[in-house]
Specification:
single chain; mainly beta; Neuraminidase; 9-stranded antiparallel sheet; 8 helices; globular; binds MU-OXO-diiron; binds calcium ion
Length: 645
């Protein structure tokens, strides 16, 4: 396995097939300040556009509340087709199976092979980021899309396979196709005549799969519990999977989040040498795992390779501008069901990464780097995420949140409690957080700073198990099946939010549910329409004007998933508007905006997912061609008048 020295930022790099390509990574010395909104010390792809001439500049500069939403809500019902408000269009940018390279064969569901899948857009696209090209240019018509592929659905990928018994029936070749369909895609796109096109000849295009070699760095690298037969040093691992949401760093790398690997492994817990640790991370005894990978790949059988699970459930950093660079698992950011990794800055310029652990009763975390971001030398930030402090949140009844540092030999993280090093703290993150008495949450998902105010919003999808005597101020409803959204307010330094402060204020933005059902105790704005309310908030994303967009997770009582636009300031605070409904049994994920706010990229996952097999699907989205399965896809939404969304 050859590692790439990313410090050299070569002007020419090789693509996966050895051909010479002309992708040119950003050079040292190129200012990064365009990525950082100076007022709020916030970082986002959208912030790249704040220097451009567009309608959002004024709002982002602080002249009052964000502009109102200028669309008529769609009605809250789902069909085989997706639906948008009048005056908007959407196009499919790329679907599962579409070629990423010039020589990739056309998609044919009946003739897939692992080799083809490695050169195609993967399955179940989730996290989606747009990075303008050239790097830092703020362009809204040319860039890279970086997109996660979370998990396979073999029963909808292979004709003849049934959901029941798929793990037993799946073939070796089908498993390898699934492994090649997980991970990420990076692709170059540009807009011509209003239409987004993928450039299959681009040297930036890349697939990262469940078998791509990558490096492990930070405190847990080399830990005895990360060593395996294939990797006796515990520093190299094959692949990433269960990539849910993610984030962008100020230096233009992607953070992709491994949301939990238990489904991918098989084995018997009663034989495992570290059983309590496995159970704390929600592993169960299973003969094949959900996807059958362990039947053909011993490393996914934890009876045979007990430490392999410890090499997943990390945050992985990838440089999309260097297709030859090895992805790196950054263990300083802890090991748990990583939902996302959203960056901001401390007042002194250190990078802050907000991290949710998407599981009932799990925690909210924050990483703060030791060193500040170097805004003029990209290479100087190469290993910034290996050194810093991971903290966990305790939400107090007085309306403040304390960030409790997880530092070895501090507090209860001592040898007496089983922690012999910072490497142990990184590996056993959840147990460390338990000992620090952090606040158990209702499944933290989206965790995003507002680019205008710096307030940090946390979407929690819910926790039906929470008992009456387990409620706390930040998770105030027992049997919380509809979820809620919290808001954290960092203190300000010289008028700017300090995301590195030890203590923030917090409050509830809204409790979700049906406003017409008093038992739900929902707290939407009283003017919320019958279409406007939602449940199970999952991905959240700000547009460049500081307006929040919320994707739901799961169909809820109205049997629809959707994307709502939500004001978080001003007189309409807490009033959502339904903007988009994906096709039946699909989920819209991860809205990502061009810097000028005129295009929203949106991932549409698992259309028709509840079918037992391909003969029983309720939608053929987006192709609706006989013999072609429903296909997860990324769409681009634009206004017909070409204005901001
Ligand atoms: Fe993959 Fe927490 O959603
Ligand atoms: Ca999610
Ligand atoms: Ca989701």
């Amino acid at each position: 396995m050859k590692d790439t020295d990313v410090s050299r930022w070569p002007a020419f790099v090789r693509n996966d097939k050895g051909g010479r390509v002309t992708a040119r990574p950003p050079q040292s010395g190129q200012p990064l300040s365009v990525l950082i909104d100076r007022r709020s010390l916030m970082i986002s792809a959208a912030a790249v556009g704040l220097t451009g001439a567009n309608g959002f500049v004024r709002a982002a500069a602080g002249d009052g509340d964000p502009p109102p939403f200028a669309f008529e809500e769609v009605d809250a019902f789902a069909t085989a087709h997706d639906r948008l408000p009048a005056g908007y269009t959407r196009q499919v940018v790329i679907r599962w199976g579409d070629p990423l390279f010039v020589e990739t064969p056309a998609f044919d569901v009946a003739a897939q092979t692992p080799d083809k899948a490695r050169r195609q857009f993967g399955y179940n696209n989730d996290y989606t980021a747009f990075l303008p090209l050239p790097f830092g240019s703020g362009r809204s018509d040319h860039g890279l899309l970086a997109i996660n592929h979370e998990y396979p659905l073999p029963q909808l990928m292979f004709p003849g396979l049934n959901a029941d018994g798929a793990a037993e029936a799946i073939s070796r070749e089908q498993v390898d196709i699934c492994m090649a369909s997980c991970g990420l895609s990076i692709l170059e796109v540009s807009k011509r005549d209003g239409e987004w096109k993928v450039d299959t000849a681009s040297g930036h295009n890349r697939r990262i799969t469940a078998e791509t070699p990558m490096r492990i760095s930070g405190p847990a690298a080399g830990h005895q519990k990360l060593r395996t037969h294939a990797d006796p040093n515990g520093t190299r691992v094959l692949g990433t999977h269960d990539n849910c949401n993610g984030g962008l760093t100020p230096w233009g790398t992607i953070l992709t989040c491994e949301e939990g690997s238990a489904d991918f492994f098989a084995g018997r817990l009663d034989r495992h040498p570290d059983r309590a640790h496995m159970e704390r991370n929600h592993y169960e005894s299973t003969p094949y795992g959900r996807y059958g990978w362990a039947r053909f790949h011993d490393r996914f059988n934890f009876d045979l390779e007990p430490n392999e699970p410890n090499r997943f459930e990390w945050v992985v950093e990838i440089d999309p501008f260097d297709p030859g660079a090895s992805p790196v698992k950054r263990t300083a950011l802890g090991r748990f069901a990583h939902e996302g990794a959203h960056c901001a800055l401390a007042a002194d310029g250190r990078v802050v990464v907000y991290l949710g652990d998407d599981w009932e009763y799990e925690y909210c975390y924050r990483f703060v780097s030791d060193r500040p971001v170097n805004p003029t030398d990209r290479a100087a930030n190469r290993d910034l995420l290996d050194h810093g402090t991971l903290s966990v949140a305790r939400f107090d009844a007085d309306g403040t949140v304390a960030w409790l540092p997880l530092i070895w030999n501090h507090g209860r993280l001592t040898v007496e409690n089983g922690f012999t090093s910072q490497a142990d703290v990184a590996l056993y993150t959840r147990r460390a957080a338990d000992l620090m008495n952090a606040t158990p949450m209702d499944s933290p998902e989206g965790f995003e700073p507002d680019p205008v105010t710096g307030h940090v919003f946390i979407a929690l999808t819910g926790n039906e198990d929470r008992k009456v005597d387990e409620v706390n101020p930040a998770n105030p409803r027992p049997a919380n099946k509809h979820g809620h959204i919290l808001e954290m307010m960092p203190p300000t330094v010289n008028g700017k939010p300090d995301h590195g402060a030890d203590r923030f204020d917090w409050r509830v933005l809204l409790l979700c549910g049906d406003p017409a059902n008093p038992a739900d105790r929902a707290t939407f704005h009283p003017a919320t329409s019958k279409n406007g309310w939602f449940v199970e908030p999952d991905n959240i994303g700000f547009d460049p004007a500081g307006r929040l967009w919320v994707c739901s997770d799961g169909p809820g009582p109205r049997n629809l998933d959707g994307l709502w636009a939500l004001h978080v300031t001003g007189p309409d605070r807490g009033r959502p508007h339904l903007f988009y409904v994906p096709p039946l049994q699909a989920e819209s994920c991860s809205p990502a905006f061009t810097p000028d706010g005129t295009t929203m990229f949106l991932s549409i996952q698992h259309p028709g997912e509840r079918a037992m097999n391909l003969s029983a699907v309720v939608t053929g989205w987006p192709d609706f061609v006989a013999g072609t399965p429903p296909r997860p896809a990324v769409i681009a939404i634009q206004r017909m008048d070409e204005g901001a969304i």
